[in-house]
Amino acid sequence: MMPQTLLLAIGALVVGLTVTPVIAQIPRASDPDTDSSRTSIPASQPTTRLSLQSATDLLIKNNLSVIAARYNVDILRAQRIALGLRPRPAITVSATQFAVPGVFRHPANLIHSNTSSAANTTYLVEVDQLFERGNKRELRVSQANLNTQAAEAQVKDALRQQLFQLRQAFFTTVLARENLRVARENLNHFTVTERILFAQVKEGYTAGVDLKRVQLQQLQFHSDVSRAEQSYQQSLRDILNLTGSGDAPSLANTTHMIGAAGTPNALPGLDGSLEVVDGDLEIIPTLLWIDDLRSMALANRPDIRAAELSLEAAQKGVELAEAQRTRDVTVGVQYSRTGGDNTVGAVVTTPLATRRFANSAVAQATAVKLQAEALLRLTRTQALTDVEKAFTAYNVSRERLRLFTGGALSMAADVRHIEEIAYRDGAKGLLDYLDAQRTYNQTLVDYNQARFDFLMSLYQLEFATGSAIVK
Fold first, then answer.
1. pLDDT value at residue 105
2. Could you give the CA distance from residue 375 to residue 440 in angstroms, rounded to a whole number?
3. Strands 277-278 and 50-51
4. CA 377, CA 369: separation in Å to the nearest integer?
5. pTM higher than 0.85 for the full model?
6. Cβ(361)–Cβ(321) under 8 Å?
7. Dihedrals phi, psi of 425, to nearest 5 degrees
8. Which one, 222, 267, 399, 425, has the greatest CB density within 10 A?
9. What is the C-alpha separation between 257 and 280, in angstroms, rounded?
């Protein structure tokens, strides 16, 4: 007969493995089998939970890319005000024809006629007003309005891009959190198995090869836990950066897990920050049609709208350049005092030749317009390409998710249950049951990935169409 301690250990293993599917999905502060080998140092401040909606609100308010785009709108609005101002009158004041050195001997000659000299002091005050012709001011204002509207559309496009990056980082963090839980459960189970096999080897009831096999397998699970922790922390840092908190201290320091000396299984924990992100991978499948998505993209994409407005502004630029062929007129009135005589006059000024300058401006504006047309075609083509790629990802991920919801999870659970019964009846060994448990946990990881891929395909469609799809 086996010693009583060995029977109790094996019984505890069976009970622990039976409840694995439930506890694998429940957040835990720490692992019970390793609490004795670690010391938990609580954080000085509680961790704030961050939902997708609250992260979105922070991004809209604090994201630096969006803020920079908004400042561009403010710049163009100020330029629009300046371009809409009418030309202001200009005043010219002059004093000429001082007779030197006579003016120093007879200062009265500064305001009276000097009969002894051919030159009399002349004072002139002239006011000039430029009159623009050819609707130049109206065209400038119209072009500035279109440029401002294009900048506002670019703000929306910057927000569209940053929101997609936020959702990608947010749900990557959720995926890493769920996979980290599964990896920790796998590691904990193999740690318990190692202890039981060690007891069996010590009592002489089993060979040491099974113990070494489990110890080697533990290395893989240690790597899985480390990779999941790294992915979680890096994705969480991306969220903080996108929401304007990129300089915040690392949340990895919220709780430090210090392993006891000589304990190889002590792992650096993330328990204090594991629930920073408040979200899951659940999504209701949505049926979509490619033709509707193409129409939505062409109608709603802000980058397409910005390109259309830029083309309209370029067309106004061509009209403004052609208006340079119309000569502007400057009209002035003047008052003059020469010696003791007062006179008034009028001045009309207009350029003699404008054709060459106007032709050059028209050629430049036409090139800008052709460039805007090419950019608009490029933007539309890219939008349709994004839709096609996103729709392909949507179909593939939907079919893959259907495999899991259609029976893969239940099949893995059935295999694990059969192996458990066979192990209890003595028909199978312990390692066969553990292998079935490991397969079930890996199926959970693949299921998490399938849900993540499908969810991100829907957000990719939102990004491609510029429209809300996820409800």
1. 64
2. 51
3. parallel
4. 13
5. no
6. yes
7. -85, -5
8. 267
9. 26
Structure tokens at 453: 């891929």
DSSP 350-386: --S--HHHHHHHHHHHHHHHHHHHHHHHHHHHHHHHH
Tell whether the model's pLDDT for residue 313 goes beyond 90: yes
Highest mean pLDDT among 114-118, 350-354, 362-366, 422-426: 362-366
User: Hey, what amino acid is at 275?
Assistant: E
Report if residue 348 sits inside a domain: no
Q: What 3-state DSSP class applies to 337?
A: strand
pLDDT in tens, 195-250: 776 776 776 655 666 667 667 767 877 888 888 888 888 888 888 889 888 776 66
In angstroms, the CA 187 to CA 298 distance is 50
d(CA 398, CA 451): 9
Nearest CA among 288, 315, 345, 246 for reference residue 468: 288
For the chain, the domain total comes to 1
Domain assignment present for residue 295? The answer is no
DSSP conformation letters of 85-149: SPPPPEEEEEEE---TTHHHH-GGGGTS--TT-S---EEEEEEEEEE--SSHHHHHHHHHHHHHH
| pLDDT mean over 123-137 | 91
Q: What angle do CA 222, 224, 229 make, to 5 degrees?
A: 95
Distance of CA 170 to the CA centre of its chain: 11
Residue 59's nearest CA partner among 170, 150, 154, 152 is: 170
Token pair of 299, please? 């109608």
Q: What contacts 24+ positions apart, CB below 8 Å, involve 353-356?
A: 354/324, 354/325, 354/327, 355/325
Find the domain containing 156 and state its range.
1-40+152-280
Query: What phi and psi values does residue 40 have, to the nearest 5 degrees?
Result: -95, 130
* Phi, psi (rounded to 5 degrees) for 324: -65, -15
Q: Is the pLDDT of residue 300 over 90?
A: yes
* 120: in domain: no
The C-alpha atoms of residue 436 and residue 432 are separated, in whole angstroms, by 6
Q: Is residue 312 part of a domain?
A: no
pLDDT for 471 equals: 72
pLDDT digits (tens, 9 = 90+) for 28-44: 333 333 333 333 333 33
Give residue 192's Cα distance to chain centre. 43
| SS3 state of residue 330 | strand
- Cα(266)–Cα(39) distance, integer angstroms: 10
For 86, 320, 325, 333, the CA distances from 350, given in Å and listed in that order, are: 18, 19, 12, 15
Backbone angles phi, psi at 38, to 5 degrees: -135, 155
| CA-wise closest residue to 30 among 277, 271, 275, 273 | 271
